[in-house]
Design brief:
By secondary structure, the chain is an alpha+beta fold. It has eight helices and 14 strands. Helices cover about 25% and strands about 25% of the residues. Helix 3 packs parallel to helix 4.
Amino acid sequence: MKIVSWNCNGALRKKLGALTVLNADVCVIQECEDPARCTDSEYKAWASNCLWIGTNKNRGLGVFAKQGISLEPAELDAGPLELFLPCIVGGHIALLAVWTREANSPTFRYIGQLWKYLQLHHKFLRQELAICIGDLNSNVCWDVWDRWWNHSDVLKELKALGLESIYHHSKSEVQGKESLPTFFMHRRLERPYHIDYAFLSQALLSGTVAEVGHPSKWLEFSDHMPLIVSTIANKSLQGDLISATLRLQSDL
């Protein structure tokens, strides 16, 4: 399975050519328009198997899957927190798509939004097959000493749930010392940051790798580079998928 997370910087309908080349099974896209309210027929056809959430029809959070891969929304109330889209992929993987925002919060902005969400719905990710993926707008380098909802605190919360960043796992890199940026502020190469992540449960880490799109190709489309997560399923994992499906259905 291949999963791509990409903040497309708006107008996804005009950028499908670049995205489809990646041939992802599931795409988690931030800042994309709502397919249900878009008049572009090509985009609507491409997005025929999707879930979408947002307060602005032109810039929301979507999960798009190939035909034949089921997407089942998980009815978890996020309240005023933005933006989170929990769903069950293929009947067995608990996936939390994320695009953290300011959400009119004077204190719990961006990573604070995810920290609050995890306090409410941590059970959703406490599954054998779970993924938390998206644009977190955060990095360890921005930790503030007197907060308990820093990036590092969220990492601890996710680790307690059994989730680990696949980029850092596969690259053997330390949080805050990433060699590959996922974001270039104002599309300037001299302002690189790593703020997009995919956290996987232990059962999914083995045989999974993460890559980041190169700016020479992607900067013309967005200030974010796609994060590409590729899992090679083996027979053991396939057995885990079946057993995890039964447990997931009984827990939710």
